């Protein structure tokens, strides 16, 4: 009789309570058994005691800083070490990497980017043989996949001068990806979200988020609407130990102005007709991480020929770096014709044979012609 696979362990060394709590949630979503340490000295001893496979390490801490903690850990551990710091200078990054860190992320960091980097690091190791799948789990994933598919928009929306499309390709391990849109008198509302977790639990959280976001459609202010929606789903997220990354936008089709809020998603790009693509920065953490969080709205002017591209972390996971991800997404957005074709090209960035997560993409393109009539399709 074969034994169950040993769960991977992680140590989070961070003196800020809120950031430490976020890191614990993010790593538990990757199925790590996580132990916390509030300072460098305690962290070194914790790593020595439990011998984890992964360590996240703050640089600025009381007692010994992250550089010294990393140096001491490397004397007895070959764990994968990710340094987190508000220091952005090249010398600081080099100091961390030279000391023995494997990766270096600057604060504020994207939870999705951290998860993608950890997944990429552990993909390089030989995976343990997978246990035979429990038929009950298979049945649950089948039902979850049906829920997930039902969240995609069914109605067609036609907007002058805009060509909008979405595409979704699930993996065997069902998650909480979804996108939704609907027409309004002034244009359209768009939501792109990922409920952390797998199986039916994540699918049901995603269904709740979709319903709540639609329920605040009549609220005229996007920030007020988003705050109300996040408060409504907070209890469900707390009970399930989950959180949701989300991009929610409201497009005025006459002017091309998009008002949006990015809550921890961080995978939206503005691809202008001329000039380099720009990543849209998150306005705050995912929904469900911190109580009474508020997310300020931002604006994006879509000129003729511009595109808004939003993808899931399944696309990010297929790249070795954030820079490669941005470059390839921009290339896909410029190399294809219609928004449907762009979505197909984006999904090809994460081939089905190797993708470890659902892959989702939405493209909103303002056509160059003044009489174009684009349909939203999926």
UniProtKB/TrEMBL annotation:
Q: Which domain of life is it from?
A: Bacteria
Q: Which UniProt keywords apply?
A: Hydrolase
What GO biological process term is on the record, naming one?
Answer: phosphorelay signal transduction system
Q: Which InterPro entries match?
A: Bact_Sigma-Reg, CheY-like_superfamily, PPM-type-like_dom_sf, PPM-type_phosphatase-like_dom, Sig_transdc_resp-reg_receiver
Has UniProt tagged this entry with the keyword Ligase? Answer: no
Which GO molecular function terms does the record list?
Answer: phosphatase activity
Output the PANTHER family linked to this UniProt entry.
STAGE II SPORULATION PROTEIN E, STAGE II SPORULATION PROTEIN E-RELATED
Q: What is this protein called?
A: Response regulator receiver domain-containing protein
Q: Which organism is it from?
A: Arthrobacter cupressi
